[in-house]
Amino acid sequence: MKAQKILYPTDFSEAGQHALSLATSLARDMGATLIIAHVEEPPMAYGGGEMYYGVEPPNHEELRTNLDAVAPTDPGVPCVHKLLIGDPAEAIVQLADADHVDLIVMGTHGRTGLTRLLMGSVAEAVVRRAPCPVLTVRQAAGVAAGLA
């Protein structure tokens, strides 16, 4: 497989560190550019009328700073950063399509059972709808248990 663009979506969690390392290695070995992206979900509003209250909107400057701090594990790998707003799975798929991404490498929390049912799986939605191959990297057992 030859790739020119590899997309690494991040949620800034430790779970993604293994995926970033793998994405960097693949980009280096293939001579590809690494696209590091974060998708911020728009704030939700609760209630209506007099009972309406909203959730604080995200601080875009802080998000941009956090995103820019995510760097390939090999400084020789070229990268670009993209900050998106929307549904995470949908925005990742749209970015991959619009930027003609050859491969998506993303971490997955490995949730199962009720937790997965309630929280959903961004990785699963991306795998189902992406226009290119998706490599999911499950977090280490110590990270999943909060031991890392």
Commentary on this structure:
- Residues 114-119 and 142-148 have low confidence and may be disordered.
- Strand 3 (45-46) and strand 4 form a beta hairpin.
- Helix 3 (88-98) packs parallel to helix 5 (122-129).
- The protein has helices at 16-30, 60-69, 88-98, 113-119, 122-129, 141-144; strands at residues 5-9, 33-40, 45-46, 53-54, 79-85, 103-108, 134-138.
- It is α/β, with parallel strands linked by helices.
- It has a single domain (5-144), classed as HUPs (Rossmann fold), CATH 3.40.50.620.
- The longest helix is centred in the first third of the chain and has 15 residues, at 16-30.
- It has 6 helices and 7 strands; from the N terminus they run E-H-E-E-E-H-E-H-E-H-H-E-H.
